[in-house]
Amino acid sequence: MIELLIVFVFGLVFGSFITCASYRLPIDIDVIKKPSYCPSCQAKLGVRDLFPVFSWIFSGGKCRHCTAKISVRYPMIELATGVLFSFLYLRYGLSPQTFILAGMVVMLMIMIVADLEHFIIPDSVHVILLPLALLYHYVQGTLSPEILLGFGVMTALALLLHYGYSYLRGRTMLGFGDVKFFAVAGIWLSFSVIPVFLFLAGALGIVLGLIWRALGKGQVFPFGPALAIALFICIAYPQISNIMSFIK
Ligand SMILES: [Zn+2]
Q1: Which residues neighbour 222 within 8 Å (Cβ) at sequence distance 6 or greater?
Q2: How far apart are CA 196 and CA 242, in angstroms?
Q3: Given phi > 0 = left and psi -120 to 50 = alpha, else beta, which region is 60?
Q4: How many CB atoms lie within 10 A of CB 241?
Q5: Handedness of CA 173, 200, 10, 79 (dihedral sign)
Q6: CA of residue 208 to ligand 1 center, whole Å
Q7: C-alpha of residue 111 to centroid of ligand 1, in Å
Q8: CB 122 within 8 A of CB 114
Q9: pLDDT digits (tens, 9 = 90+) for 109-126
């Protein structure tokens, strides 16, 4: 129970990092070196402002210095990360899998927030997800040349969607950030799970796209969140491929 609480708090802290990184990476601000500041009044944040969730609640969702509203998105992201970390701990205990998948969660969350906010998947996300995938296969004992097959198929498919669609329709369906993500996801996924991943990503894409339009956010919709959630489900819930065996 104590362990679970510690894991949850770790999740909250990494959630803070996610909000910071997903805000800074797309606009090229150093994530590590520059201290936290209020984007409205540039005031440097003190210790009192840096407690995940609690700072937001106690400040009433406002900056202490300029009273600019702080989006409820920040504590939500922190809570979601805490919950996902706890879920991984309950499932895998304090194992290498938990640490690797927690790293994956952090990168996928940055990707989701950055894509929703800026229509960008920062390259740092791919740069970190790639070695994590190799580490994951190593720990699982599945590090074999077969992963190159997944990489090749997914890259080819993404390039086909990227160039084929813009050739036929004159606009882009799959941005280049998504193409790079397909390539990296191909390394994470074993070859046999790829159809499940594509099905899930497509289904989630349709649902999220409809919500996006219902919210009046425009015709162009970021595909990154659907891809990220589909990959997480396929990796953290390998059973899904048995349940969904009808599409294989
Ligand atoms: Zn401020």
Answers
A1: 115, 116, 119, 212
A2: 10
A3: left
A4: 19
A5: positive
A6: 32
A7: 26
A8: yes
A9: 999 999 998 899 999 999
Q: How far is the CA of 64 from the centre of ligand 1 (A)?
A: 7
Q: Measured between alpha carbons, how far is residue 116 from residues 30, 71, 90, 191, 229 in Å?
A: 20, 14, 29, 29, 13
Task: Kindly report the pTM of this predicted structure.
Answer: 0.91
Helices 176-188 and 123-140 cross at an angle (nearest 10°) of: 10
Per-residue pLDDT, 169? 79
Which of these, 58, 105, 97, 96, lies nearest to 78 by C-alpha position? Answer: 105
* CA 113 to centroid of ligand 1, rounded, Å: 21
> Residue ranges of the chain with pLDDT lower than 50?
none
Rounded to whole angstroms, what are the CA distances from 56 to 10, 60, 62, 82, 217? 17, 6, 7, 16, 26
> 46 CA distance to ligand 1 centroid (A)?
12
Between the CA of 15 and the centroid of ligand 1 the distance, in Å, is: 20
What is the reported pLDDT for 82?
A: 96
